[in-house]
Amino acid sequence: MAIEELKVGGSIKLKGPLKAGVVKIGGSLKVDGDLDVYSLDVGGSCKISGNLKAREVVVGGAISIGGNALVEQFFRVGGSADITGDLEAGEVNVGGSLKSHIVKSKIFRLSGGARVERVIAEDVEIGKDSEVYGVIIGCRVVIRKKAEVEEVIGYDVRVERDAEIDRLEAYRVVVEDGAEVDELLYVEKAEIGEDAEVKKLVKAEKLSVELKCGVS
To answer: Which residue range(s) make up the domain with 29?
Structure first.
């Protein structure tokens, strides 16, 4: 079934696989199966039992995906996104909440909350007061003030003031004053502020994960 443009103001349920151009949801849409779209804008609620494939996705409301999500360009969440499978996108920007298995993207920005198995990205920024349950793996990783992250593995990592990390591995790392890291493993260089708290510091020959980063 193919639809050029679909606008949902009320409540509708469709049988997949469904292919569409532009989908805008102000009400409620349920898709029993896979959804393949050019653009998906969710202001209300969207529930997909299968996989989602799109060029761009914007979620101001709530989206639930029973399978995987493959997004060519950007996946932006101001509301909530619950993905049973994996999320792969060019850019992931979350101002609300995200739940997923594995997230892969070139750019990952979070200014809300995330519960994931792993985030794998080239460029990662965890915003002020954000919370991440899971592992962040990236080439360039910045943990902003007062953010809380379970685990980080990165090439160049900066941990800002009053941020908290349970476990951190980095090739090069800067830990600012007031930040707390339970366990820190570094390969080349660790700059730790005088008022930072690092409970366990270990110098290692390599990281536990091989990173393919175009940095010097």
So the answer is: 1-82
